[in-house]
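Hey all, sorry for the wall of text incoming. These are the two entities for the joint prediction.
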Amino acid sequence: MDEQPLETIETPALLLDPAKLERNIERMRAQLAEAGDGVVLRPHLKTAKSIEVARRVLGGSNGPITVSTLLEAERFAEAGITDILYAVGIAQAKLDRVIEIRRREIDLTIITDNLVAAEAIAAAARASGEPIPVLIEIDSDGHRGGVPPEDRDRLIAIARTLASGGAVPRGVMTHYGGSYDARSQAELGEAARRERETTLAAAATLRAAGFEAPVASIGSTPTALNTKDLDGITEVRAGVYHFFDLVMAGLGVCSIDEIALSVLATVIGHQQDKGWILVDAGWMAMSRDRGTANQAVDQGYGLVCDASGLPWPDLIMTSANQEHGIIAVRPGSGAVLPDLPVGTQLRILPNHACATASQFDAYHVLGPDGAVTGRWPRFNGW
Amino acid sequence: MDEQPLETIETPALLLDPAKLERNIERMRAQLAEAGDGVVLRPHLKTAKSIEVARRVLGGSNGPITVSTLLEAERFAEAGITDILYAVGIAQAKLDRVIEIRRREIDLTIITDNLVAAEAIAAAARASGEPIPVLIEIDSDGHRGGVPPEDRDRLIAIARTLASGGAVPRGVMTHYGGSYDARSQAELGEAARRERETTLAAAATLRAAGFEAPVASIGSTPTALNTKDLDGITEVRAGVYHFFDLVMAGLGVCSIDEIALSVLATVIGHQQDKGWILVDAGWMAMSRDRGTANQAVDQGYGLVCDASGLPWPDLIMTSANQEHGIIAVRPGSGAVLPDLPVGTQLRILPNHACATASQFDAYHVLGPDGAVTGRWPRFNGW
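and here's what came out:
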């Protein structure tokens, strides 16, 4: 597309700074090169849901990647990516679609943590002749799914069930989502240590039971960026590091300046006696995610920057309706409300990049001079 | 489309019960027929964003409607709707698009609450020759935008500015969003009374200043369903009543049984020691809306029903990741966790219909026997 000055972009719009994206990608590459000898990065593309972002993240290779929906798997497969992990416990009704994708010569791996699904996968592998590869999910942090680490019998039974139908127990995976609640670097380091150790123990259990189980997969942006020891781990999954967001900044995982994503909005009114600035971006644009609400610094629905991306001190979106955002100074901060007339464009940094990006069907991509130089489509839905 | 048994629908999916939709539509019609002599219902279609829902809500007429984005205005205009109110304070950069829609012989009305925008509208009306109709937004509840009711000078100045350029100050509008925080029927009745009185006073101010200002527009589902006096009001805007949701049920505005919208999900695992059931619908499907968090009954991310739509006592989605929901009994309720094996389909009622529906690009429409009989597209975005 032709270069468009920001003033001509209709609001709300999702802005992406590709220079920050590239720096964030490089930071994770360098971190893993230092921490892990030969460990593979399998970026999670559930945040980006974009072919153009995938190309930059993969640096020209055709994988591997992680996805959160089969729609992502299909779209990335069409774009030439051939090694895909679908990292949500499989539902039996989705197995036909999995097999269909695999038949396009895509090495699609799925996950499960239970025997009922393992039996369904085994039956589907037997009926189709597809050697469906499966990672068995391990619960490293007590936050979501996964086989409890101490339940070795269940782990082995799942692997046996899979293999009995010709499916392939390819190894184990975990996601230490509890890292998002860490309060210090020490807690992040401890999360990374436990994530690795739980995974290696489970992989060792499978191998001792006679399974090859070559894969030991871990992943979350906070743990990936806070570990110095990936010995034994074969791959790391992380996604939000492409863009970063206020939750990651609140965790100390990134700086505000590294956040590559923002929502462009326009001032549409004021309530002067209340110290409010109203903008045409509400929760439909920002999402309802309030991920910083329980952090040390609550950023409301987002931190407000000028149109060039420079944050005002303590200016946040304090509340949001569907298409209205209310901007005010952070309660108790004593900051001064800037004079922002009706018509002024603002950029709002999101709490949670995954949630905010999913409210839009495309990124408006910024050039070095701050104008919009491209439009990268996203694929939402399932 | 051919009828599809629910078991064949891939999850997550957004289900709509058209029989409940019709009953909810009829309830609002009957309520307004009783409360207001000749008052017009101008349904807000920001929740539905669907041509098929609009047809049912309008009962065959071609308007009037309310929208929250210009994309909605364009799509509904293409479908033959000719009288549209865009009820978000206009940004100057959107005026070209407004004029373009009006030139298709659509009576598109916009709103503002300030002089800067009024000047831009007047200039656009003058330059284009389009007599853009404008409702001036009044702040009836201190929750969002709008001219403060006591600021008659500003109200009149906005009307004069509009008229000076050939735009038409068609009247006043307000939204008593504070009604969503009401704690009793008495508070809802008081909200409805204040909404009406503020609006009539502002309309009277404009008329006394010499403007025709024929329109006095109010609206919110809770106030519309809790008023017996609409004397002087010309139109009522309301939207969420089409579907209702748990927030409305918590307000006492509807019963759980009237909620027409739910998210179909599949059980993908359990954490038995924690009493958790994991499903393949997380916040990407439910949205991050936690609108019941501050109500008397906190419904988590949604109330869980069986596949036929019958709720289990106190079974809710207690937490959500992007594509994972964790279902458990409501803390402190003492309810018993039902035995729901992996593969079981569930239906989850949403906190906030507007937010949950916006996570999907279509409704799966249920037939009388519970199978899916149609797919109604939605249009998200701007």
